[in-house]
Every structure is written in C-alpha cells, then in structure tokens.
Design brief:
Blueprint lengths: L3 H12 L5 H8 L3 H13 L19 E9 L4 H12 L4 E6 L6 E7 L2 H10 L7 E8 L12
Antiparallel strand pairs: 1-3, 1-4, 2-3
Helix pairs in contact: 1-2, 2-3
Length: 150
C-alpha cells in the first residue's frame, strides 16, 4: 500500500527521475537506506515501472504522433486481455488506455512518417486481436507535456 511518504517519493521522482537517493531521502525526511528500501519496494511492486528520458521534440526525434481509437468486436475480459497483451508487445504503441465511452482503447503511436504509420496500421494495429474499428488522428504539435504535478 502506498502511503504519504511513498506518494512524496513518487512526486519528486516524477519531477526529477535522476534525483540522487541522498537528495530524495532528505526531501522526504528518511535516511538514505530507508529511502532506498522504499524505492526498491515501489519498483518490485510495479508502482514504479521504469525510468526514461523525456526527449524534446525536434530534429533529433522527427516523428509523427498518432492518437488512435480502437474498438473491439467484444468487450469480454478474455478479448480485452488478449488485446492488451498483444499491444504491450508493439514498440510503436507508446501509450495505451482502456476507455469508457464510444471506443474501447486510446493509443498514442509514434511513426517516422505518414508512410511508416500506414505500415503500422496495416501490419500491426489491424492485426491486433478483436480489433473491429481503428480511427486515427494525427497530432500537429504538442501543446502541453506535463509529467509532474509541480
């Protein structure tokens, strides 16, 4: 169970994932060893799934972001688990959300170009289990990217 101190650790890491354990421990009022134990527990339990670098949009990362709405032919637990397991294996799918509303899943897909997205659509997305409808929306530019609550 995540408590107040764990939430503080998560908030600080969300703002600065490279924060040293010593700084993190000081900020939350723990000894470095106690803080590291909590951090390892958060990682082992899956609360912290990993660490990543946030790359600024620009010439080094020329990619097309596509927001994709997926509708399944059946919304049973079995169909959803099969879809989710298959989606996790697709490196082009950067994010996947189970939705309430008209579509079942919302995906954020990154492609190198429109032609690359056409390949992803035909070779990957259309072959995911139980997919009956794919609606693609191309992002023009990122307006807000906020990974921390500060």
């Amino acid at each position: 169970m995540v408590d107040k101190i764990d939430r503080a650790i998560l908030s600080l890491l969300r703002a600065d994932g490279r924060m040293s354990n010593a700084r993190l421990a000081e900020a939350v009022g723990l000894s470095p060893s106690a803080c590291l134990r909590r951090l390892h527990l958060l990682e082992a339990s899956g609360v912290i799934r990993g660490y990543t670098a946030i790359i600024e949009d620009g010439a080094a990362t020329q990619s097309t972001v596509v927001i994709v709405q997926i509708t399944l032919d059946h919304q049973t637990d079995e169909h959803m688990k099969r879809f989710e397991a298959a989606a996790r294996k697709c490196v082009e799918i950067r994010e996947c959300y189970l939705m309430a509303g008209l579509t079942d899943y919302l995906l954020r897909v990154e492609a190198q170009s429109i032609a690359d997205y056409e390949r992803i659509h035909s070779e990957i997305l259309s072959k995911l289990p139980s997919v009956t409808r794919i609606q693609s929306n191309f992002a023009i530019r990122n307006v807000i990217r906020n990974f921390s609550k500060s």
